[in-house]
């Protein structure tokens, strides 16, 4: 119980490290006024989890999951082995307040990926229902 609580609390603060976790390389591509502030991927207990946060870029208007989502792609040796689309929560990125950037978070659990898989998270400016990755989830 302590280990699960520690993992959950560390994830909330963007420092997701769990004792049994094997971290996977992860990178992010921001666009459309949305910035992927951080991304973390790891294998633990037969599952792969990908978590992170999204914020608005300078001069960006309202960004919401109604027209923007994230594509998460896992590759191995340059070949796509898994691709899913996901939203973020809250579904509209909150405004910055008192010097603190407003952020939304995302989290996806997948079946365990190979330890040499690479994860890429990309902002996709299209409703998720129109994305081919959404149907494969």
Multimeric state: single chain
The CATH class designation is Mainly Beta
Mean pLDDT: 82
**What distance lies between the first and last C-alpha atoms, to the nearest angstrom?**
30 Å
Strand order of the largest sheet: 1-3-4-7
Integer tally of domains: 1
What CATH calls the topology is: Immunoglobulin-like
Q: Give the structural class.
A: mainly beta
Beta-strand residue fraction: 35-45%
Q: Gyration radius, to the nearest Å? A: 15 Å
What general form does the structure show? globular
Low-confidence region ranges? 1-6
SSE string, helix = H, strand = E?
Answer: HEEEEEEEEH
Number of strands: 8
CATH architecture field = Sandwich
Main beta sheet: strand number and arrangement? 4 strands, antiparallel
Number of helices: 2
Attribute tags:
mainly beta; 4-stranded mixed beta sheet; Immunoglobulin-like; 4-stranded antiparallel beta sheet; 137 residues; 2 helices
How would you describe this structure to a colleague?
By secondary structure, this protein is mostly beta strands. The radius of gyration is 15 Å and the shape is globular. The strands form 2 sheets. It has a 4-stranded antiparallel beta sheet, with no helix packed on it. Strands 2-8-5-6 form a 4-stranded mixed beta sheet. It starts with a helix and ends with a helix. The protein has one domain: Immunoglobulin-like (Sandwich). The chain contains 2 helices and 8 strands; from the N terminus they run H-E-E-E-E-E-E-E-E-H. A hairpin with a 2-residue loop joins strand 5 and strand 6. The N terminus is likely disordered.
């Amino acid at each position: 119980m302590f280990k699960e609580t520690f993992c959950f609390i560390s994830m909330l603060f963007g420092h997701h490290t769990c004792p049994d976790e094997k971290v996977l390389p992860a990178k992010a591509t921001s666009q459309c006024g949305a910035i992927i502030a951080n991304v973390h991927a790891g294998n633990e207990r037969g599952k792969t989890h990908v978590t992170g946060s999204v914020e608005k870029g300078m001069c960006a208007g309202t960004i919401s999951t109604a027209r923007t989502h994230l594509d998460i792609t896992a590759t191995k040796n340059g070949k796509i082995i898994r691709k899913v689309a996901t939203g973020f929560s809250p579904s509209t990125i909150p405004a910055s307040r008192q010097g603190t950037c407003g952020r939304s978070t995302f989290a996806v659990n997948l079946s365990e990926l190979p330890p040499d898989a690479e994860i890429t998270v990309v902002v996709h400016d299209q409703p998720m229902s129109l994305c081919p990755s959404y149907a494969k989830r």
